[in-house]
Amino acid sequence: MFGEQRPAQTVVSAALWALGQQLRRLHDTPGVQSPSSSTTAALRHVLTELLTKHEQLQRDFYAAAAAAAADPGSWESLTGNLQRAGQLLGPQLLQQAQELAEGVCAALPLHHCCNNPRCLNLGGLSEAALVAGAGSRCSGCRASYYCSRECQLAAWRLHKPVCKRLQAAASR
After folding, report:
1. pTM of the model as a whole
2. What pLDDT tens digit does each residue of the chain (172 aa) get?
3. Rounded distance, CA 166 to CA 113, Å?
4. 167-171 own/partner pairs: CB under 8 Å, 24+ apart
5. Whole-angstrom Cα distance, residue 130 to residue 114?
6. What is the DSSP string of the chain?
7. Where do the domains of the chain lie?
């Protein structure tokens, strides 16, 4: 895109592209696009906001890369700044990505797998058993399933606000 790409530029460009693809996939998921609840509306709003920020980040990156290509001496400075920013922001971005994933898992309860986003149980109930009702089900919203009571308790902090919204939506 800018002539010869440097390795760091290639990695950042690929990461930005992949992030955009994932955000678009999440945004276009049928469950997110259905107007069924305030939870999905809130999630849709957040994803739209993230897509807008992603587009701005991409524009800024390409502008910086073009400026660096025009002045080869500035590339070393840009690379150093990117490395320092990555060291500082990497853990924070990872934490934010994990929180987003947990929020999506909590906001979109699934009937065919454990709804605890941190479930590591690979030897317990199968998805078929969960669908058949052999697992633990939230008694409040009746929409979230868990492979065990332990997973249900572990996920309660994330599920509690979603559970209240699901109960309110069901009572309308």
Report:
1. 0.41
2. 444 556 666 767 777 777 777 777 777 776 666 666 666 677 777 777 777 877 877 777 777 777 766 766 665 665 666 666 666 666 666 666 667 766 666 665 555 677 888 887 766 555 556 656 667 888 998 888 888 888 899 999 988 988 888 888 778 7
3. 18
4. 167/140, 167/141, 169/36, 169/37, 169/38, 169/39, 170/141
5. 8
6. --SSPPHHHHHHHHHHHHHHHHHHHHHT-HHHHS---HHHHHHHHHHHHHHHHHHHHHHHHHHHHHHHHH-THHHHHHHHHHHHHHHHHHHHHHHHHHHHHHHHHHHS--SSS---TT---SSS--HHHHHTT-SEE-TTTS--EESSHHHHHHHHHHHHHHHHHHHHHHH-
7. 7-107, 127-171
Name the token pair of 7: 């390795």
The C-alpha R_g of the chain, in whole angstroms, comes to 21
- The encoded tokens of residue 141 equal 């919203």
